[in-house]
Amino acid sequence: MKAASTQLATHIAGETTSLATCWKVTRKDAAVFGFTDHDRNLVIDDVPYEARTGYTRTAIQTISDLSVDNLDIESAFDSEAITAQDLRDGVWDNAEVLIFLVNWNALSEGRIVLKRGTIGQVELKDTLYRAELRGLTQLFSQNIGELYTADCRADLGDMRCGIDLSALTLSGSVTEATDRYGFTDTTRTEEDGYWKGGLITWTSGANAGRKMEIRSFASGTFALFLPMPSEIAAGDTYMAQPGCDKTFETCCSRYSNGINFRGEPYVPGTDAVLSYPDGK
Question: Is 13 exposed, middle or buried (0-12, 13-18, 19+ CB in 10 A)?
Answer without folding.
Answer: exposed
